[in-house]
Amino acid sequence: MKKLLILTTFLSACLAGDVRDVYRAGASEIINSDFYIGVFTVACLAFTTAFITIGRRKFHAPGVVKRGRQITFLEKIKCDYVQPSRTVGNLFERLDIAFAALHKKAAANNNKIVFCYGDYPKLFEADFENTAELLFTTLDFVLKVSQNAVIKLGARPITNEKYRFFICINQNLNERKQSILRVLDGKKANIDYAKLALVPRFFDALSTKLKFENAPKSAKFYFDVNMKPMGVRPRYQIKNSKNPKIVVCEEDIVAFATLDKQLRSMGAQTIPKSSLALEHALSPVFIPNAVFINGKILRKMRSDDLAALVCAKREKNFCLIVLSDNAADDEYFSFVSREKCCYMLRQPYVIDELCAILNKTNAEKNGLIDNRSTLINGEFF
User: Fold this and answer.
1) Helical ranges in 170-276 per DSSP H
2) Residues 366, 367, 371, 374: is their CA dihedral positive or negative?
3) Whole-number Å distance between alpha carbons of 141 and 32
4) How does the average pLDDT of the chain come out, rounded?
5) Residue 348, preceding bond cis, omega within 30 degrees?
6) How far is CA 280 from CA 259, 289, 339, in A?
7) pLDDT tier at 43, thresholds 50, 70, 90
8) Is residue 334 a contact partner of residue 367, using CB atoms and an 8 Å limit?
């Protein structure tokens, strides 16, 4: 705009100078030439002023921010802090809302999320909204930078009213370590870390900070939040069944250990993880109440082995639960979906869903419900 003003003023001066020369040449014939030159100059200046005013209105219309100091992406995010909001609620219910979305997102890079939570309370007075946002925003970043990984998600108490949430990855993040630490300190980074750059806005509201540790074969994110327990520890049990026998066919040690611990807490007897687990299910001597099998194992089974599993299920009348690592594995449930008493349990899940499936199997065997109904993630259809 300044350049425009200078240019216009220069042109006006040039025009005025040319007119002055003409009038001087004919001074003997024209009277009061200076008066006309002055009028011409004033008119040019008035035109220049009007042009500048219109230009300003055009380029600075309502709703358009005037040009100033350039703001970086991370600086914008740092200004958007959230407010604390403590309420009383069920931790599992708050987490389970997002688990279905995480199951789908994990499929992009063939990741697997396993939720681990021990014998701790479920009811708390806490800032659930900001805690969940911080947790799942971090998980979004982890799912993006990890491939074919097993991600262990969980929480455990470190004091009576403080819990630590953690995200453990069975892969290291050596190449990203320095950039991750810079972002968590509020420093600039490239667009690949946009998701992680959102987490600092939750620190003040939760009085915490997300920390990162990197090891040769693993990586870990964790943060501590204040959570006041408001109820007793829940007790889960399999109804109408005493010490049920359950076979678990799961190749991943983290997923198996988590499921095994959950089943034993309900009083179930589990077959130790080994290559013989599936043989126990097929053995004519051993009669299990339920068989958990990972969808990827179903996919790798030969057609005759799959037929033998279905035949054993019909003869022994056990329940078959297919474990799906992510949304890409959901299709493997179709191998057995036409059979009665077959269900799919999607990772990650809460123990409430697991207990609901096992209680439904007993009710189905006892004829208390229609055995053609299905249950997915704790819901009947």
Assistant:
1) 177-184, 203-206, 253-265
2) negative
3) 80
4) 79
5) yes
6) 18, 12, 20
7) low
8) no
